[in-house]
Specification:
Elements: H1 3-18, H2 23-26, H3 28-31, E1 40-46, E2 49-63, E3 69-80, H4 89-103, E4 108-111, H5 115-119, E5 124-135, H6 136-146, E6 158-161, H7 169-176, E7 181-182, H8 186-193, E8 199-205, E9 208-215, E10 221-227, H9 233-244, E11 248-254, H10 258-265, E12 270-281, H11 284-298, H12 305-314, H13 319-327, H14 330-335
Parallel strand pairs: 3-4, 10-11
Antiparallel strand pairs: 1-2, 2-3, 2-7, 4-12, 5-11, 5-12, 6-8, 8-9, 9-10
Length: about 375
């Protein structure tokens, strides 16, 4: 079946529920013709007509510290024609996708979406993200605490919306690569930023390129950002909100982005923690080893990797629950049980293990 026919089906089904949808524009990294990175399509047909679809996009997660990597099969664009639901098509497609991923050496399956819908297929919540509400009034107050009046007498940063041909992209990609774990090549970098019709702005300090901001199509959320000098995050956000005439934006970062968290926490209106993705382990030992190494890449405290691995083997829960227990706020709740805790004797600062990918890496 041709890619365009598959895209037409996905657009039709999602548009019936969510209004007009064009996946080629919505997720260019996977579906734009010029990218040629089409995912693997798993389909079910009846009478020569497409009735159900599930796509899998390969993502290689790379630990910058030592080039360690794991391969994830990212599941997205899951859709069944409304008149053919209840026939078990989604179960069949999920089974096919998992079998294909196992046969092709993937280490885990990833997806986003409703937890209850996917838990029955062996997925558990994994990873913690910090969600901040950034208000212009709070940012200005923080700026007056951090910077001199001379520094605040005029905007420090200006912003230029960019496209895929921008000369800034190589440098912006180098800033992205400072993350502990990355999932994009330079070729994929800008198409990922364009996901969900987001707008990307280069952050400029005079004539110098200093970072980038990715703003959601509705202007309510900064989907991701990088700034060369983390000490000026509050100032940069203040200049951005003023320049875009915004009073407030939401912003999420992973728990491994400590420099960002330290700056955002002191300038936000409020923040909370939530889980990031849904994960199913295909090769549990490799994934656990990767997550422990990820933790060691940014945490200066002594983390006993061998003890965490022993804990994994000793936990009296299925593997699908172990990953949620060790990577989400569940670990904090569990430790509070004291003598009855599954994590009895484990120092609380060892957990949770990190897992977070920006919105642009999903589809």
């Amino acid at each position: 079946m041709e890619n365009q026919e598959i895209l037409d089906f996905a657009n039709m089904v999602f548009s019936m529920e969510y209004g007009s949808i064009d996946f080629e524009q919505l997720y260019p990294k996977a579906y734009a013709r010029e990218c040629c990175h089409f995912p693997v399509h798993h389909t079910i047909e009846e009478g020569g007509k497409l009735k159900a679809l599930l796509d899998v996009y390969p993502v290689t997660l790379k630990l910058q510290k030592d080039n360690r990597s794991i391969r994830a099969a990212y599941i997205g664009t899951v859709c069944v024609h409304p008149k053919h639901r209840g026939k078990g098509y989604l179960t069949e497609l999920m089974q096919r996708a998992e079998q294909d991923a196992r046969e092709n050496g993937f280490d885990l399956l990833l997806l986003d979406g409703n937890r209850h819908r996917y838990r029955s297929y062996g997925f558990e919540q994994a990873g913690v993200k910090c969600n901040f509400s950034m208000r212009l009034s709070n940012l200005w107050h923080r700026c007056h605490e951090l910077y001199t009046e001379e520094e605040l007498c005029a905007p420090k940063y200006n912003f230029e919306e960019i496209d895929g041909e921008s000369a800034y992209i190589p440098y912006l990609f180098s800033l992205y690569q400072r993350r502990a774990v990355t999932a994009r090549t330079q070729e994929q970098f800008f198409p990922c930023l364009k996901s969900s019709l987001a707008a990307t702005y280069a952050v400029l300090e005079g004539e110098k390129t200093a970072g980038y901001i990715n703003l959601s199509a509705d202007g309510k959320n900064i989907l991701e950002f990088e700034l060369e000098e983390s000490a000026y995050i509050a100032r940069m956000l203040c200049d951005f909100l003023e320049g875009m005439e915004l009073d407030e934006v939401g912003l999420s970062v992973g728990i491994d982005e400590m420099q960002k968290i330290n700056q955002l926490e002191g300038a936000c209106a409020y923040y909370n923690l939530s889980t990031s993705h849904h994960m199913k382990l295909l090769r549990p030992e490799r994934v656990l080893e990767f997550l422990v190494s990820w933790r060691e890449a940014y945490d200066t405290r002594v983390i006993n990797a061998e003890e965490i691995k022993k804990l994994w083997n000793a936990l009296l829960v299925p593997d699908m629950e172990k990953i949620s227990l060790l990577t989400t706020p569940r670990c904090f709740w569990e430790i509070q049980k004291g003598e009855n805790s599954l994590l009895k004797g484990i120092p609380s600062e060892w957990l949770p293990l990190p897992f977070f990918l920006p919105d642009g890496d999903a589809f």
